[in-house]
Amino acid sequence: MPRNRFWDVDRVGPVQIGTHRDRHGREAHAAACTAPGCDWSADYLNRAAAELAARTHRCNPR
């Protein structure tokens, strides 16, 4: 089983954005919040969408 490898990793506030290959071999972009108690993450097909989500994300830790 191949490892998940991220490249072109950036940080926007508490959110990290990274590029990876999805299970179909296509390039995808993931955004994940690293704040304690916030479990938000999402995959996007283009980098601009991931960056927009990272800039507009508001943490709501439980």
Tally of DSSP helical segments? 1
- Overall shape: it is globular
Please give the number of β-strands: 4
Gyration radius, in Å:
12 Å
The quaternary structure here is single chain
- From N to C, what is the helix and strand string? EEEEH
Report the portion of residues in β strands: 35-45%
Pick out the low-confidence regions.
none
Distance between the termini: 34 Å
Structural class: alpha+beta
Largest sheet: number of strands, sense, barrel closure: 4 strands, antiparallel
Question: Helix coverage percent of residues?
Answer: 10-25%
Strand order of the largest sheet: 1-2-3-4
Query: What is the averaged pLDDT score?
Result: 89
Organism: Streptomyces maoxianensis
Pfam family, one: SpdB
InterPro entries: SpdB
Protein name: Mobile element transfer protein
